[in-house]
Amino acid sequence: MKRILWLIVGILVGVYAVTRLKKRAQQFAPEGLQQSAEKMASAIRHFGDEVRAGMAERETELRDALGIDTAASEREDYR
User: Fold this and answer.
1) How far apart are CA 17 and CA 67, in angstroms?
2) Residues contacting 73, CB < 8 A, separation 6+
3) Residue 79: Cβ-neighbour burial (10 angstroms; 0-12, 13-18, 19+)
4) pTM of the full structure
5) How far is CA 76 from the centre of its chain?
6) Crossing angle for the helix pair 30-66 and 2-27, nearest 10 degrees?
7) Long-range contacts from 5-8, C-beta under 8 angstroms, 24+ separation
8) 19-76 pLDDT, tens per residue?
9) Which residue ranges make up each domain of the chain?
10) Which Pfam families does the entry mention (predicted)?
11) Dist. CA 29–CA 11, nearest whole Å
12) Which residues touch 63 (CB under 8 Å, ≥6 apart)?
């Protein structure tokens, strides 16, 4: 009875290890690396958009606080 129990435990551990190794192998395959790179690029793009939105919001707050006319400052901007 003990031998059968240990055999079943060994089989379960083996199946678990093989499935974990297959998942790791898929992550390091070219397709998995490409998906990881796409996720990273998307996160960076999202972060940049949030920073730009925050900068624009803060600039508006500062212009309102200082009483600067936005239409006049846009005409003077020669960039």
Assistant:
1) 66
2) 63
3) exposed
4) 0.55
5) 39
6) 60
7) none
8) 999 998 888 888 888 999 999 999 999 999 999 999 999 999 999 999 987 655 555 5
9) 31-67
10) DUF6167
11) 27
12) 70, 73
Give the other-Cβ count within 10 Å of 54's Cβ.
10
Helix, strand, coil proportions of the chain in percent (round to 5)?
90, 0, 10
Let me know if 23 is exposed, middle or buried by CB neighbors in 10 A (0-12, 13-18, 19+): exposed
Residue with tokens 């435990």: 9
Higher pLDDT, 3 or 78: 3
Secondary structure, 3-state, 9-20: HHHHHHHHHHHH
